[in-house]
From TrEMBL:
CDD domains: TM_PBP2. The chain crosses the membrane at residues 33-60, 90-115, 127-147, 167-186, 237-259, 279-301. The lineage of its organism: Bacteria, Bacillati, Actinomycetota, Actinomycetes, Kitasatosporales. The keyword DNA-binding does not apply. This is L-arabinose transport system permease protein AraP.
Length: 316
């Protein structure tokens, strides 16, 4: 029986004289082709790109859900600019987004760094803390609606703290409730992000800091936080996009009330499209939210330098 010898792979020579290895034919090593990404790309196109294009088209039409949409040009956009409720909803959306970032970010960082440690019972406490993350937004909103009920909930048993107990009856307290409920549910998600990032920090950095006499606080601000920079940016982008598109919590807890005091842009879109049957105006609001969320995310990525993916471990 005769055998044929396989020719060894010969390294190619670069212009500077260095050698680069040549992939052996038939080894199966290489970058996957586009066919591997085709199913995900098709799914994204059908359930994201196509609906978005349809919404963009509807935003320039007048349609009540029956018959065929009629082209109306920029009428929907002009009406939104002159609509005081729409302007108020934009400011409220911005307020909820900023409060969400300001409240959730420090709590998530501290809990994430703590959960990355080796404290006793840390795993058990972390598991209990992550329970809200497993619940749906609807379930969480219904739960807190019952807990904060002015007649049968906690406020009715602590009048000295909550007054008449109707926390959802005034704009200031209703906004506070929305921020609190969002923090209670979504902080575990961002904590998980920071926990993973904190565990990836090289221990040698802390060992060197201890040799130099740096305490826990200095290590946190001079080592941990700089190493979490990319994770902080990612977390904040998720918070901003989530804040701009908050709907379920507002629908169940406040229904936009009292009056229109907690009507954010996403809920106003729902009112326009599915209560007033003005799908053209509702589509215009939806498209506006998509554009704003995309632009804000791009600006955050650009200003933070996250798009360049600079390493946080230089010098190691």
């Amino acid at each position: 029986m005769t055998t044929t010898a396989t020719a060894p792979a010969v390294d190619k020579v670069n212009s500077d004289g260095s050698r680069r290895p040549t992939r052996r034919r038939g080894s199966g090593v290489g970058r996957p082709g586009f066919v591997w990404a085709a199913p995900a790309a098709l799914f994204f196109a059908l359930f994201a790109i196509v609906p978005l294009l349809m919404v963009a088209v509807l935003s320039f039409t007048s349609w009540n859900g029956l018959g065929s949409p009629e082209f109306s040009g920029l009428d929907n956009w002009k009406k939104l600019l002159d609509d005081p409720v729409m302007i108020e909803s934009l400011w409220l959306t911005l307020l909820l987004t900023v409060l969400g970032v300001v409240v959730q970010t420090p709590i998530s960082i501290l809990l994430g760094v703590w959960a990355a440690g080796k404290q006793r019972n840390r795993a058990i406490l972390s598991a209990v803390y992550f329970v809200p993350l497993l619940l749906s937004i609807t379930a969480v909103s219904v739960l807190w609606r019952a807990v904060l009920d002015p007649n049968f909930g906690v406020p009715s048993q602590a009048a000295w703290l909550f007054g008449d107990g109707n926390l959802l009856g005034e704009q200031s307290t209703a906004v506070g409730v929305l921020v609190f409920v969002a923090t209670w549910q979504f902080t575990p998600l961002h904590t998980l992000i920071y926990q993973g990032a904190a565990r990836a920090v090289p221990p040698v950095l802390y060992q060197a800091a201890q040799i130099d006499g740096a305490g826990t606080v200095r290590q946190f601000f001079h080592i941990t936080l700089p190493q979490l920079r990319n994770s902080i940016i990612t977390s904040m982008i998720l918070m901003v996009v989530g804040g701009l598109t908050t709907f379920d919590t507002v629908l169940i807890l406040t229904a936009g009330g009292p009056g229109t005091d907690t009507t954010n842009s996403a809920y106003y879109m729902y009112q326009k499209a599915f209560k007033s049957f003005d799908f053209g105006a509702g589509s215009a609001i939806a498209l506006l939210l998509v554009v704003v969320a995309t632009l804000v995310s791009l600006v955050m990525v650009k200003l933070s330098g996250y798009d360049k993916m600079r390493s946080t471990m230089e010098g190691l």
